[in-house]
Amino acid sequence: MYENNYPNNYNDGNQNGNDVNYSQQSNDTYHYGSGASFSGADGFHREEYGPGNSGKPHKEKKSGSGLGKKVAVGVLCGLSFGIFAGLGFQAVDTATDFLKDKAGIEQSREAEEASKDAQTKVQTRPEEDNTAKAESSYQVNETQMVQNTVTDVTEVVKEVMPSVVSVNKRYIERMSFWGQEYSQEGNGSGSGIIVGQNDTELLLVSNYHVVESPEELTVQFVDGSQAQAQIKGMDADKDLAVIAVQLSDISSDTMEQISIARMGNSDALSLGEPVIAIGNALGYGQSVTTGVVSALDRPIAASTVQTDTQEDTEINTFIQTNAAINPGNSGGALLNMKGEVIGITSNKIGGNAVEGMGYAIPISDAEPIIEKLMTRETKLKVDEEKKGYLGITGLDVASEYSQLYDAPRGVYVSSVTEGSGADEAGLVRGDIIVAIDDEEITSMMELRDYLDYCEAGSTVTLTIMQGSPLGYQSKTVEVTLGLQSNLQ
């Protein structure tokens, strides 16, 4: 049943006349007559169906002014709707932009406050004065702030470079073929670090394999000047050596430009910590590479002589880094971001089989050895006519023979010259020399290199292994060196 808001009065009082009268409260009356006519109370005639109309409805003509009004009303309604809709969208866009701008301002203020806090923290740490950091930030998706940190090492390098030197070596390579000995001259290069100074010498640390068996050692400083250097002390097992340059051989201008390196603490390193390597890469001069600490306490066999037995292999632990360590970098400095030496780089360790894996001797392990070597007497090469001789011929005890015959590594005495210092000290054929003046000897070349610094008439202490029914027994003897001319 349809229900409207206006109550109707229904009057069916004249059913026979076919008249139906509907009355509303507005006093408007509508009549349906038997002639099929309909008329309203206002006299407006809607439709008439009569006998003379041939059964067709009669349509009243519409006036043109009525249609125009309707079109005008429709156009006005459409314009009104468009205007109000446009104003609504514009209001929404304006509100959105306002909120976005407000959010951007808040984020910018937060970023500025965070940047100021970071700068304040950096300024309160004086130990990081040598590290320059440039910070930049940019906005992603208008909501997330991303901050990049770029590390600049120029100040660190500027401070440390005067304490790093290039080490150049001239050496004689000796070879034996069918009992005949041959030799040829060669040149090598490496790096060194200035670690101290005494009354007469400037002291530098490098790798043992950089300075071993030299005919001549030359050091080049940061200003390009050069000076000769001498061996002060060496530790073959740890691949460390200390060399000395006479202060009298260094000009005053050079002394003003060089500096002594600051030692750090390699025990305090962390994985991923940034590091800098400075060294004489490929012998071209000082160069700088950067990286991070890739691994700590990396165990690697670092014996200077390749052997097949565990007893002859020295296992040391090293700092691993992805900073480029190339030939010539050996003996150079591995630095932290404070400019402190935290390692002595070595290209020899680990070999060149892979890329991005360089190694350095931790300074906390090396420093006690360096201090010990610095106290030794500097070895000055002796002129050929003053050089002292033992008076023996010897052969290297190779690792395979050492393992096969259960013999110690060293120099096998194959013959002793009669009347020589070795003869008077009691050395005989079959003895094996394993040390001289407490420095380990594993080859005839190492023995010759040591004697190059010994004058005739001086005394050396030999540690030898003599055979017995119970096996090899250790014995210490003192030998007075003689002139080669007296042995012929």
Provide a short characterization of the protein structure.
By secondary structure, the chain is an alpha+beta fold.
Explain the overall architecture:
The structure is a single chain. The chain is an alpha+beta fold and 488 residues long. 23% of the residues lie in helices and 36% in strands. It contains 9 helices and 27 strands. It has helices at residues 64-123, 154-160, 208-211, 252-257, 363-374, 399-405, 421-425, 444-451, 484-487, and strands at residues 8-11, 20-24, 29-32, 37-39, 45-48, 132-140, 144-152, 164-177, 180-197, 201-206, 216-220, 226-235, 240-246, 274-279, 287-301, 315-321, 333-335, 341-346, 358-362, 388-389, 392-396, 411-416, 432-436, 439-440, 459-466, 473-480, 482-483. The strands form 6 sheets. A 6-stranded antiparallel beta barrel has the order 8-9-10-13-12-11. A 6-stranded antiparallel barrel has the order 14-15-16-19-18-17. A hairpin with a 4-residue loop joins strand 12 (226-235) and strand 13 (240-246). The longest helix has 60 residues, at 64-123. The protein is elongated, with a radius of gyration of 51 Å. Residues 1-64, 121-150 and 304-312 have low confidence and may be disordered.
